[in-house]
Amino acid sequence: MTNESGLKIHGVSHAFDGQRVVDSVDLGVGAGELVCLVGPSGCGKTTLLRLAAGLARLQHGTIEIGGSLAATPERTVPPEVRGVGLVFQDYALFPHLDVAGNVAFGLRGLNATERAQRIETVLAQVNMLEYRSMWPHQLSGGQQQRIALARALAPRPRVMLLDEPFSGLDTRLRAQIRDDTLHVLKESGVATLMVTHDAEEAMFMADRIAVMNRGRIEQEGKPTEVYGRPASAFVARFFGEVNELRGIVRNRAVVTPFGPVAANGHTEAATVQVVIRPEGLKLSPVTPARDGGEGPACIAKVMAARLLGRSSWIHLDIGGPSGHGPAGETSHAQHVHARVPGSFLPNEGDMLAVHLDPNQAFIFALPETP
Ligand SMILES: Nc1ncnc2c1ncn2[C@@H]1O[C@H](COP(=O)(O)OP(=O)(O)OP(=O)(O)O)[C@@H](O)[C@H]1O
Ligand SMILES: [Mg+2]
Known about the structure:
This protein is of the alpha+beta class.
């Protein structure tokens, strides 16, 4: 990876009171790249960011910034000279400094003219130039967040570390600010590591996504890779509710109520977990099978249908008394969810044919059958 000018986290582990909360993490962020670190509450995201920033002492591993060592367990470069810009959840502007004063805070070694120019440039970048003489308490949450971003960018850091920077904002403002932030970060060419626990936000912002679980990076890759080829059921679940079934591998495929799914690499006769995204279930009217043609893999009964806006959410019962799966593989009613683009609202009790998009179905070994 060509990230000599960015951030390189290598073999980093961290424990609090003997409890390991960051476990052998390797993660690189190249210049101009935006990597989102995602994962559930308590999985170690903030701890990792604090270690990268130099706000906590490194116990194991190394942190490199701009191609030189910023921290080892023996030696550490203090946060203020690491060349990192920090934006945390609560913005934390200095209340006793006006906007320009806040942005000027990290600008050492510049003369008055250069400093004024730099303040003007970054305030213009975040569209806040006309607020330069205001005080933090006179700004909205979104405006404070922009100033926090400008303050962090002003000293031209090599690395930006953002911890849930949009979580204090309401939905609409959040969409606007994250769009602006993405453009500002991309224009500045800085290496950015951003923490969020919102999968959609990560998909929106990230060049690459690192999914963290219990202190470890469970998968890391482009959004299309982690979404399209999740390495575990945990990663698949992280990007939205999924249908989870079990099945048995026979002839290199797992028979599901919706048809077979290729079981690449899984042992014959093993019981495996099948994870199907709701958008992987395609619904159509039930039509009689044509001569020689294949009938629908599965017929399901609509339990409820709801419009969510851009898509519809359909609750289906399969394999119950009024629905049926193939070859008696499903003997009891099973509830699944399908997501259909646009408005699709069948009536309760309607019968629909269900086809499976195999690209939206994933097979994983069960934890108890390694
Ligand atoms: N200073 C501390 N002393 C002891 N334990 C801590 C300390 N800071 C964090 N922890 C513990 O380390 C674990 C990881 O915490 P961390 O703040 O890194 O999680 P996180 O992924 O950022 O979670 P969230 O999404 O809720 O912000 C948690 O179990 C937390 O309780
Ligand atoms: Mg956190």
